[in-house]
Structures are given as C-alpha cells and as structure tokens.
C-alpha cells in the first residue's frame, strides 16, 4: 500500500458500523482516509456520521461480497462476519486485514484455544464438548463458553457447582478450568504487513460481574516491570504466530503465582484500548489504520495515567436514551466524554465511555470513585 | 440549550466547510452532535466526511437564510459570511453563536480597531483611510490592512518606506503603527451563554514572513507568569466586552517594554489552537461546541508541551497534492499528522498540520528543528 502513501486514494471498507467503527472514522479523518461501512442496523453508530454507509448484513455472503468487491482494502470492527465472503474477496485480490484465516481461528473459541495449545502459548486447560451432556461430565467448577456466537459477555458462564450444570450451553462449546486470577490484564498489539510489531503498555481491567463486561480499565496496570515485559512479549508472540496484520487485543489472567495465561483475543480495536485516545501518543484506532495500511506503527507511549469507564445502559430501562448527570461529569477536570450515538438504551448496553486522566494512577483512581455513580443512562 | 443536554436533538448548522469544520466534526462525534455544513466548494474538507453537506455560498443572503431556517443553532468556521442572513435568522429565533453583532464588529478591521479604542483595550494606534491617496499621506513605515476581505495573510502588508506606497490598497483600510514586537502570542478564550469564561494557556506563534501565515506555534509560550496572566485576562476582557458566546482567538504583540497589544481577533476555532487537540485536556474544537451549547466549559490545562507546524503547499507547485516525506514523519515519536483532505495544492495553501509533543518545550523545539523540512507538499 506504499503507493497510496497519503491514503486519499485507498477505498477502505469496514464490516460493522458500531462504536469501534465510529472512533476509527474519527481517526481516519486525520489521514484523509475514506472509510465505507457495512452494517445491518440503519441506526448503527456509523450510519449518521460516515460519509459512506451501506445497510446490509455483515454475516451474509452475497452482501459482504458485493460490498467488498470494489474496495482496495477491507477490515472489520467485529469478528462475526462472513469469513467465506472475505476469503473469496482475498482470492480476487482485495487486501483483507485481519486476514480471513486469522478471523477463522479466532471466531471459534474452540479453534482459538487449540491454536494456543498448538503454539505452546499459555492458556487455561480446556476440553471441547459438543453439547450439554458432554459438558456436564466435566467436574465443576469450570468456565463454559459457546464456541461461536458469544459477544459482549454473552455466551460465557461460570458453572460453579453440580446444580449449575442444568444451565450448560447445549451446543459446541469450550469447557475451561476456572483460573483464580489476581488481575485481568490486556495488551493491544499491532503488526503491519512489513512485520513491524508494537504493543501498547499493559492495562488492568475490572469487570462488572453481573454483565460480564469491562466496567473499569486502568492504565498503566499496577504490575512489576517483569510482568509488564512478559505480557507485551506474549502479545507480540501471539500476533506473530497468527501471522496477522492489524490490531489485536490480548486479554490475560495474572495468577497468584505470577503466571500469565491468555484468556481471549480480539483482532480489532477493543474496549480495553479506548483510553489510548487520550492517554497514549497514538490511539488504538490510529494504530489499526497504520497497521492495515502498512504504515510505520505509531508511538504507543503513555502520556497520562487514565481510567476508562463504560457508560452502560442502566438496569430496568429500555427505550430512547437519556443521560442523567452528564452536565456534572462534563464540568469535571480531565474527564472526557464519548457517546456512541445509540438512540435506544437497554440494560448493560454500551452507550458510551468516559476517560478520566491524571498525573498518577492513584489520582485517577480517586477521581473514578467520585465519578463512577454520577452518570446514568435511563429512558 | 440545557433542554437538549445530550445534544442528539440539536440541529446545528456550520457556515463554512474547511479544515476547522472538519476538526469540529471530529469532536462533535464524541458528543453525538449532528453538524450540517454549508460551503460553496463541492470539494471542501467537510464535503466528503460530514453526514450532511450543502453546497452553496456562505456569503449569499438567500442561501444562508435557506440553510439556517430549519436549524436550532448556527455557528461559523470563517467570518466572511452573510451577516445579514444571520441577523434575520436570529430575529426569527435561531440561536446564532458567535452573534451576528459580534461578527459585524470583527469582520471589518476598521470597526474592530474602533471597538478596542472605545473599550480602552490596548492595540496599536491607527487611522481609517478610504483609498490609496489617503493611505499614502501617512508617514511610512506602517502596517496597511484592508478593512474587509483579507484572510490567511492576504489583505495585510507592511509599507516600509515611501516607495512602497505605490502598493497601498486603494480601498477602505486601516493604517496602523508598526509595532516592533518581541513575540507574537495568542490566547484562545471561550464564553458560554451562562457567562462562564475560560482561556487556554498562552501560545507563541512564529510567522512565515513570505506567506504572512503562522508557520510554527509553541505551547506553552516562554513568557513570565505575569505576562501569561495579563494575556489571559486581556482575552477574557475582550470576549466579555464583545458579550460574545463561542470561542475567540486573541492575537497579541508583546513589546520589548512588556506591553501587550491586541493585533487581531477571530471568533472561531483558530490555527493557533490546533495543538490543543493533543496538548491540552480539551481541544479548542470541543471548547467551541461546549460554549455554543451552553455546556460547562472544558478543562484547558496543558498535559504536554507542543509545537504545531502548518503543512503548507510548496512554492512552485499547483495541482493534485502529493505528500513527500510523510512516511518519515509518521515514524517519528510524538508526531501527529492532520491532513485536511484538500485535493489540490498551491503555494502556501494550508494542506494540513503536524503537532509535535514532548515533556518540555525545549525537547519539542529540538524535534521541530529535525522535522521542519522533512515534509513537502508538491504536485
């Protein structure tokens, strides 16, 4: 793609038009890149802001093929796409990053786990099962994940004891040893077609146990320099072994005995990288563009400590979203608002996020305590 | 506008669709605001990226009136607009920020100078003249400015001696005492309808003498705390005396004897505030939106020292733009690229800008020396 150096000529298609696409577009404007989005939802976050939005299913072969065939380069902002159509387009000469082969490995949590195993990448021990009966044979407790179709915390559950087993998914799934981790970490790593790799500094995630979604993220993670380096090296190993071009989020467990285990990976900008917009020299969105265009990768250095809080739809409210307390939040120092432009809220729907920055992670943590209950999305 | 707190309902029109509108849009996306642009150039920087772009003249009464009458709020990204149409729309209940009355004072450099004089705001002594003959009667040297129609360094010249006077503008103009300043400073200040004001820290501008355009900008300015405070207070005085809502760039001369004199003001986001995207908590674009929507004004604190370099069209090249050296620049740490999406270059046309950040202003100045000749816009 070096021939299209300044990028104004590359016709770039993005499968998915959600908030990740929206933030990608904000970054693309700086480089004079034209993004074309495909999403089935006419009210998707990218529908009103993209200069080019096609309404159609990203999982339908014909729709994706028709959308992709006049593009120079295709990328995704969600994994659940017609990989078959992308494979066909790749055969016909369209650049597809991340590559369809990578999407195939990752989309199915069974093949994803098998990939770690085959490449001796550390991950929790697992079995692949076909249905509820097979899953139930495994002694509880364990983590039970649908092989495909899960997202945003759906399709993943902890089976704590024998009586929980009635809830086991009755479909092909992964049964994984429950890891008593001390921290959940995430590393965003990028790789371009020239093979250059660069990792963002490790962040620490705190999950909402009810929604199984990232609720808070802190950057930098409070870990030793040794663990930091190991985590970054591990993320680089994963993207290299995948031979992937693009950006990859590598979610890790840190155990009490200081082992790092890969939990899951996502081959796209990720919720655990939103803070990079304000906290790092380059954002994950800029880095994604640089990687897929084979540009030099951006500087990932931290310039400010930060926390990211997802703005989730309040429990008990469904309908046109109202943001209670936004005025209060907007008046606070070093507090950045990102709304995704979703008309309707529902419980735990990701409606936006806040990034709170500060000179130190302790200063940021104090601010988060003040802010965390200030903003509510109701209807 | 507090009723439209989260902003998704406010229909906001912007007169002008250049790079300022483009960066305003990038910021508006974070707040889920819908911007509608009007610009006569079908290839304007906002034409391809805005979700709503109307091609039409911003100086034509009927066009502006038709564009504005279904909007809740109108703003500008350039002063040269049909003020008459905005006045009519304001009468009919459309919010117009900055107010047409403010635009009227500023657009004409004669009334602008008179405003400073009437409000005892420090500025260089001046005369208003009607034509070349009148201008020529003033003893050289002096600065000669067309009252209207000048922009981007055009319509301003220094008449150094008697023989230069043949070049005097033969139209209503301002003849101003030439000030032997030691620094050119700029303060961006915002005011919302509730009367809250907030200034960004003072920056220092270095002009390209040939193009009479800002070539480099450094933030923070290397001035004493006393001058810093005076400059910020002066900027706040100006916006308050204008009774203006919106964002105002106040360009100042600092003289050898430590006097601050107002050079010019611009009632919109300004070239001397581009660094705020990376260097300050809130950007000038976010601040503009906050001010016109009567939201709490954003935190203007510096988080990183920085320099802004305009990417100007190279002399001797006119036509489809090519960016030589962009790959080199993009590989440098803490270097941010902003291209404006202008297809054609011409000498000194503003094609984009670079922001270079660092821990200290000295570190930034060193980097600027390395970078400043790396990137060229040719055709």
Textual characterization of the structure:
The structure is a homodimer of 379-residue chains. The first copy, chain A, has 379 residues and is an alpha+beta fold. Chain A has eleven helices and 22 strands. Chain A has helices spanning 19-30, 61-68, 83-91, 100-107, 109-118, 132-136, 225-242, 276-279, 284-292, 326-330, 361-371, and strands spanning 11-15, 34-39, 53-55, 73-76, 95-96, 126-129, 142-146, 156-159, 173-177, 181-191, 197-199, 203-208, 213-219, 246-255, 260-266, 305-312, 319-320, 322-324, 335-339, 344-345, 350-358, 376-378. In chain A, the strands form five sheets. In chain A, strands 10, 11, 12, 13, 14, 15, 16, 19 and 21 form a nine-stranded antiparallel sheet that branches. Mean pLDDT of chain A is 93; it is low at 1-6. At the A-B interface, α1, α10 and β19 of A face α1, α10 and β19 of B.
Quick overview:
Chain A is of the alpha+beta class. In chain A, 26% of the residues lie in helices and 30% in strands. Chain A is built from eleven helices and 22 strands.
| Biggest sheet descriptor of chain A | 9 strands, antiparallel
Percentage of residues in helical conformation of chain A? 25-40%
Using the CA coordinates, give the radius of gyration of chain A.
20 Å
Task: Please state the structural category of chain A.
Answer: alpha+beta
Largest interface: A-B, 44 and 44 residues
Instruction: Give the DSSP E fraction of chain A (strand runs of 2 or more residues).
Output: 25-35%
Termini gap of chain A: 46 Å
Low-confidence stretches of chain A: 1-6
Mean pLDDT of chain A equals 93
Q: Which oligomerization state do the chains in this entry correspond to?
A: homodimer
Mass-distribution shape of chain A:
globular
- Number of continuous helical runs of chain A: 11
Tell how many strands the DSSP assignment of chain A holds.
22
